[in-house]
Amino acid sequence: MCGIAGIVGKGDRSAAEVMVRCLHHRGPDDSGIFSTDDLAIGMARLAILDLSPLGHQPMQSHCKRYWIVYNGECYNYQSIRNKLEVEGDRFISNSDTEVVLQAYVRWGAACLQMMNGMYAFAIWDTQKKTLFAARDRFGIKPFYYTTSKGPFLFSSEIKSLLASGYVDFDVDTASVFQYFTTGYIQQPATIISDVYALQPAHYLMWQNNTIATHRYWDFSTITPVAMEYEEAKAGVLEHLKTAVKRQMISDRPLGLFLSGGLDSASVLASMAMNNASIKSFSLAFEDQSVKNEGDDARELANHFGAEHHPVTLDVREALGNLDHYFNTLDQPSLDGFNTFLVSKVAAREITVALSGLGGDELFLGYTWQRNLLHRQQNAGIGNKLVSGVLNPTLFNTLLTVPGVDTLMRIRSKYGYKDLRSDYINLALSAQGGLHTNYKLLSDEVKRSISFSDVYKSINHVLTSPGKPGAFVEASYLTSKSFMSSQLLRDMDAASMAHSIEVRFPLIDHELFEFAVALPDKFKVQTLKRGREKEDTYLSSTSKRILLDTLLPYLPESFLSRKKNGFKVPLRSIINQIPEGEFKSRIFDSQRQWSQWIDEKQVQKLYTESVQSGSRPLSWWKILTFVSVLASLKRAADTGK
Fold this sequence. Notes:
The protein is α+β, with helices and mostly antiparallel strands. The chain folds into 3 domains: 216 residues, Aminohydrolase, N-terminal nucleophile (Ntn) domain (Glutamine Phosphoribosylpyrophosphate, subunit 1, domain 1, 4-Layer Sandwich), CATH 3.60.20; 348 residues, HUPs (Rossmann fold, 3-Layer(aba) Sandwich), CATH 3.40.50; 62 residues, no CATH class. It has a 6-stranded antiparallel beta sheet. It has a 6-stranded antiparallel beta sheet with strand order 4-5-6-7-11-12, with helices on one face. It is built from 28 helices and 17 strands. The protein starts with a strand and ends with a helix.
């Protein structure tokens, strides 16, 4: 696991060295630069496989023609290596980097079809003067790029690009609007103008200042299969065990991030089936405003014989980590603080952690997914009329009217157009209400961007090349947006801040392809509307095949648990910030960002908070925004 960076079209070695230094936390074990007159590429290495100097990067191909910088893990590198050895290749290291490089030399972009893993890498062809770059299927590993000042620059982090001196600190107003409405920024856009994320499951080719991108995989094209339920359960278990076994390869200490829920429990059970020695880590808060899953996690760990490390924090301990946390993010987002906190403690014991992220996306565990599907199945003329009247154009004209939030709730509850349109409508109205968020934006942002523009841009990204059924499309929408642009992106940033590599067996693409093709009724037995807050795992109708597959291995008490997503007590954290510090963090910083935030509205919100005696969660959104922008600005100004 590494951080990678490069400048193509200009051999500015000193700028590349600055970029790599910005990535030191991602790779504290080693670093390197390769440069010519028209190129400078570098990496900061966190050694996971082959800890010897033979894994050093940048790495040159056997034929001396190609150079690679590589961030990630190719879990099946050994089988690819065996194929290459049959073709006559010989290897000097035991690193997957060497295998990935030689696979590209022999098969070109087709090598991506063979790879199972999480990765972002770039390969320079010294003869043709071309750069090939690729990103894994779900976007676990980041790859940002820009051509804003001529040369092509890429990096694992936006701060590294800003520190190069080739990228201006120019905030993208459409992304500001999107952050305040959805809580994150949909790829390929970023918070910085002219800086883009290479989309998941895409590769890029640069030549003569021309960039071409291509999609190499998409699960929306998978053909459904007919299968008996018992056969499907056996298939899920086998794919899960295989995925976990693959992702346990490491020459460094490995563990598991464990909550009390089904997804991480399924990974834990699979690790036990693979006879692994397990260290598990859970995070809980003493604050009573959120559910404490610490006891549930401990019970699971004891059941499977794991060496458990519970992390219990009070609010003041969490407060002490705010500055470091905000400085790790290179885009504002409402997620990631929990991963940051548990990674900080886990880093004392392990370097690699497995996670249960992905189960809700794959097996339809989110309530909103089931509600959309339920509405689709029961849609009539009235639902379509509601959607036709309450459309993006209307909302765009009513943003200044408080009643727009009520109309959007009506649209979300009673309207139906199609899953994608309804999902985007839900996403743009979910974080506290569209009108509430719109009021916080400056007049400049309001003049330069519209609701319908943002709606159209997200719609374009989420349009699938295949024709998936409704259940698969629900998985597709979540995976392409919320999972890749927020959950995975934030987990990468928050864990790499402590040099921890996190892996995700439930989004192993072979498991994903198998499960996506299964009949809908295997995933959700009965669609019903509602929040299902009182559902236990036994009474729930969602994620049925995953639960039924794991039932023989889970403790009996697991079935009576209520389903609860992990939550950080953000309201309590905000309320515990001392008054003077709070005002300094928000208002001193906010004036610097008045180009994007309305200072009068922020002051009004503050007055209302004082009167109510509680600071609303809107403050977390504002605090994250001003803190992350300040961190990005420092990187642009100082190269750090």
